[in-house]
Please model this.
Amino acid sequence: STVAGLALGNTWRFDSGFFIGADWVGYLIPMSSEDNTKTVTTGSSDESLEKASEENKDLASTFSKIATPQVLMFNIGWIF
Model:
């Protein structure tokens, strides 16, 4: 999924370009999602495996479209 993130937090930048930050609370909003799955079985396949595969695909599709809250995310790096 491609998401847009909204967050409230702090970032501290030093003269060397090094930074450290913390997002105290945030929210990730899905903008688009795509799934590409393939199930391969060896030997004989029965209906229960096909049903489980389809249920997993539906579940992954559902989760990829749900907005997600976040709490306490740390960031560290260099600013060029």
The first strand starts at residue 2 and ends at 13.
